[in-house]
Amino acid sequence: MPVLGRDVRVPLVTGGEVSYAALDYAASAPALQRVWDEVAAYAPYYGSVHRGAGHLSQLSTDLFEQSRATVARFLGCRDGAEGDGDDVVFTRSTTDSLNLLASALPEGTRVFVFETEHHASLLPWRASPTTFLDAPHSPGQAVATLEAALRAAPEGPKLVCVTGASNVTGEIWPVRQLAGAAHRHGARIVLDAAQLAPHHPVHIGELGVDWVAFSGHKLYAPFGAGVLAGRADWLRAAEPYLAGGGASRTVLRGADGGLDVEWRTGPARHEAGSPNVIGAYALAAACRALSEAGFEAIGGREAELTGRLLDGLARIPEVTVLSLFGAEATRVGVLSFVVDGWNSSHLATALSAEYGIGVRDGLFCAHPLVRKLLGAQRAEPGGCGAPEAPGEQSLNAVRVSFGAGTPDEHVERFLRAVGELVRYGARWRYRTEDGRCVPDSERDDDNDRAALAR
Ligand code: PMP
User: Fold this and answer.
1) Which residue segments constitute the domains of the chain, with CATH numbers given?
2) Out of 68, 113, 231, 333, which residue is the most buried by the measure of CB atoms under 10 Å away?
3) Of 77, 287, 365, 437, which residue is the catalytic one?
4) Residues in CB range of 440: below 8 A, 6 or more apart
């Protein structure tokens, strides 16, 4: 599946330019060529949704609702005219989706969440009593930990929030088993599928989850839409997430001089304001493209590249790949690592400046998890310096991630680059600016000599 950006060339600090190797799909994936083409074909027909009498407004409204139906098919949503099935709500992102669900929890709902979650899954529940679960060291331990916590919980509504695949380690969580545990103890479960959906089928019924949240920009559709899909009952009973036009059916001045508002039920209840029809259309186009390509083929190719990456990194003794589940883990195309004697920001900057490779460094919006994996309780300020003592572990990590359209060459270049940097050191000099590592732009003698050294 071709993606945009394959021919983009970027300058190297050491001179010349190379094709850009995008290896940061876990942050935002490039657009699928097909998504881009479909959006371009629709763009001239763009019009307002649910608002206009004109032909293009009608067309856009139809396409918006068809996009909803496509996403519902992609996720295997359950029908239910009376609100006992699933609703698909278009949001801005996974973060937005989980905040929407947090705002719709019945009074007194207790939330259960592993400390290993992305902040988008960890933080939205602040208004609810929350049980934080310790990081498990195997999928089996994850299920046992959840069971024990649910067993000990007081009566009342409960929600479990789990991530399908970690944005740090790429490891896949035992979602079906966690859903089973949740339901055995009368809890509901929401799946943060931000990292799982681009790589793996996410079928609500087969996984047995109650809701799924994901983002278009990680699913090759970077047009600002996300999804919350799942059981309609709590969503329809909740106050609208946003108050405004579209969510309200009628608004009258009441006898007391205030407003009497009748809110819509269904997805529109939480989609106030003009909907992002291009985002929804692009997201649906991505769902169609991934379904047609087939997750078996997508997963097979990714497993091959992941295997090559893990083998290549294992040959560099200074590299430690981060893992929670160890040998039991199955992964999507995401992995993080640290290198003895290297500050991760320095390594990531050198990969970009000297090899044209885009990766991410830091704590990846999953601070408790990365700190636990690194055995560190404080974050390292960015910057270029080597860790304080030689051989001391960096207090943040480098993440490499890939997916549709990643050629072998990007993975090979990455492994060669890490090997060369670790063995011979950076060719350029770097300095710290605003907490970030940046190449020293002055072409002084030292930099020139270092660039020529190999
Ligand atoms: N959950 C996970 C597992 C993620 O990786 C991310 C994004 N890094 C999010 C949630 C949040 O996604 P978004 O930024 O699109 O809201």
Assistant:
1) 9-30+295-451 (3.90.1150.10), 34-292 (3.40.640.10)
2) 333
3) 365
4) 428, 429, 430, 431, 447
